[in-house]
Amino acid sequence: MKDTVKFKDYLKEELKDPEFREAFDEEGVYASLAIRIAKIRQEQKLTQKELAKQLHTTQQTISRLENIHNKSYSLQTLIKLARILDKRVIIKFSGRERRG
Fold first, then answer.
1. 64 and 73 Cβ atoms separated by less than 8 Å
2. Which domains are seen in the chain, by residue range?
3. How far apart (Å, rounded) are the C-alpha atoms in residues 76 and 46?
4. Does the CA dihedral 66-68-73-75 come out positive or negative?
């Protein structure tokens, strides 16, 4: 528990730096997207290979889409993926949370 508290304090302090906060927020967007794609695929009981076949691509491409470090998503691919998974892509811009 102590390490968690220390990390939270450290993160709170680091987030005061605008450059750090911007990078942190950006990473969060990519990680959330990758995790969401993987979760939807798993909920629909599809393997990466099965989803790749439906998307007319390779298993490696699906793996890349589900990688939290991937920063090369195309909107066209996301729309196609959403259609196959019976979902919609909604892009939303919102105000930044104030931290500190």
1. no
2. 2-84 (1.10.260.40)
3. 21
4. positive
Tell me the whole-structure pTM to 2 decimals.
0.79
> Tell me, what's the pLDDT at 79?
96
Count of CB atoms situated within 10 Å of the CB of 74: 8
**pLDDT (tens digit, 0 to 9) for every residue of the chain, 100 residues total?**
566 679 889 999 999 999 999 899 889 999 999 999 999 999 999 999 999 999 999 999 999 999 999 999 999 999 999 999 999 999 988 886 665 5
Amino acid identity of 77? T
Structure tokens at 65: 């889409």
Tokens matching residue 62: 């699906």
**What's the rounded Cα separation, in Å, for the pair 60 and 65?**
9
Helices (H) and strands (E) in the chain — how many of each?
Answer: 5, 0
Task: Answer whether 51's CB lies under 8 Å from 62's CB.
Answer: yes
